[in-house]
Amino acid sequence: MSEYTIVIVRTIFAFFFILLLARLLGSKQIAQLTFFDYITGISIGNMPAALAIDVNMQPMDAIIGLLLFSLLTTLVVFGALKSLKFRKLVEGRPTILIRNGNVLEKNLFKEKITFDDLMQGLREKSVFKLADVEMATLETSGVITVMKKAEYNPLTPKDIGMPVEAEHTPSLIIVDGILLDKRLNYLGYSKEWLLGEVLKQGAKNFKNVFLAQIDSKGNVYVDLYNEEEKVTQVKQKPLLSAQLRKMQADLEGFAIQTNDQNAKQMYYNQSIELQDLINKINPYLKE
């Protein structure tokens, strides 16, 4: 067997062996890797690389090294899960960089973080002024997390007591022109209704649709193969809200126009009841 053939075979073996180990060890997002995870990943990755290109290395030696290193890594991870003190020893602990709006210069020096690094971390959290920050912490993954001062936090509907309709994960219902019937039925919508929504946006049938997604409020997003055919979708909820307000205004107009006192009172009463209804459902009619 030629040297090139040996390298190819060993490379394929090393690739699938490290893939198997990666699945067994578990995974984290790159942004969540601690220093220990980073060093471990580099070390385990170097062993299969050496096995692939170093023809003088015995495959069994590399396999034993990989298995032993993976076993030690698993033991360390297990120990970190079971013991808080051991976890702090292995992964470290978060460091506060800003407390009560004051920058802690000693902690910046300790973590080897410059002022530019700190400002970059704040900007990544959409914070551009130090005066807005109540606390900033350097996590063990190297990410800076920020808590703004209370007066600079965005206002939410809950803060002002405004009721909002719960919203859930949207679902794809058409993919590459194919209707996902089971998913549509699970969501409680009919095929005829969906076709009507698709026609409103310029498609002639489901085959004209590349992607279609429906949210928990029943709004349908449609992406056509030919975008030039797409038309602006009429938003049904704001339209219904406007129609209700027009009906309420019409009732008041009828009350003003009539001379019949009984009819006038009836129109006013109906106008008041309709206004109460509008006030109750209006938060749910916003897109």
UniProtKB/TrEMBL annotation:
The record's subcellular location field reads: Cell membrane
The family assignment reads:
Belongs to the UPF0702 family.
Q: What is this protein called?
A: Uncharacterized membrane protein YcaP, DUF421 family
TM segments? 6-26, 38-57, 63-81
Write down the InterPro entries for this protein, in alphabetical order. Answer: DUF1657, DUF421, UPF0702_alpha/beta_dom_sf
Membrane protein topology class: Multi-pass membrane protein
- Please verify whether the record's keywords include Cell division: no
| Gene3D superfamilies, alphabetized | bsu07140 like domains
The organism sits in which domain of life? Answer: Bacteria
- Give every YetF C-terminal domain span: 82-214
Query: Mind telling me which Pfam families this protein's record contains?
Result: DUF1657 (PF07870), DUF421 (PF04239)
- Where does this chain mainly localize? membrane
Kindly state which keywords UniProt assigns to this record, in alphabetical order: Cell membrane, Membrane, Transmembrane, Transmembrane helix
